[in-house]
Amino acid sequence: MELPPFQKMQSGVYQATEPVPRITAEHLRGLVAVAESLPRKRARICMHRTGDTPIHEMIIALGRETYVQPHAHRNKSESFHVIEGRCDVVLFDDAGGIADVIRLGAADSGLPFFYRIATPIFHTLVIRTPFFVIHETTNGPFVPEETIFASWAPPESDAVPARQYATELLRKVDARLAQR
What we know:
Elements: E1 7-10, E2 13-15, H1 25-37, E3 42-46, E4 55-63, E5 71-73, E6 78-84, E7 86-92, E8 98-105, E9 114-117, E10 123-127, E11 131-139, E12 147-149, H2 159-178
Parallel strand pairs: 2-3
Antiparallel strand pairs: 1-2, 3-4, 4-11, 5-12, 6-9, 6-11, 7-8, 7-10
């Protein structure tokens, strides 16, 4: 699927090519449509020109069925500014126990609409609406080895255990939120 004026780099990943890229509501609808069509239910537009740039900014659409293996970032910060939808950011201790849940929503939701992690803490997302759209900022360059995936959670490529883990995590997050 095409998403003009962005260049398709791979399935679900688009690159801004204009000197001053812009995002419109039409682009967001297109990005959500792309994500909806993909098995992993996610798509992104990279606003930075190359993987080597010092600041990486992306517009990301994640469907409710998206599973993100809990992970931490070495030498990175990560921030989300919510554009649309709701999500719970789940923070874990090193053994996989839930340390905190940060509820996020668009600015008009009454929930926090921005968060930033600057320490290597394990985290994942529980998407609460059909789609969650964010503006993510992180420092570059992108170095895959700087992402540490939690050994206590299944990888995204292992579909059945990942789905089971996500279902159990949702149950635990709901139980924790009910205690607040």
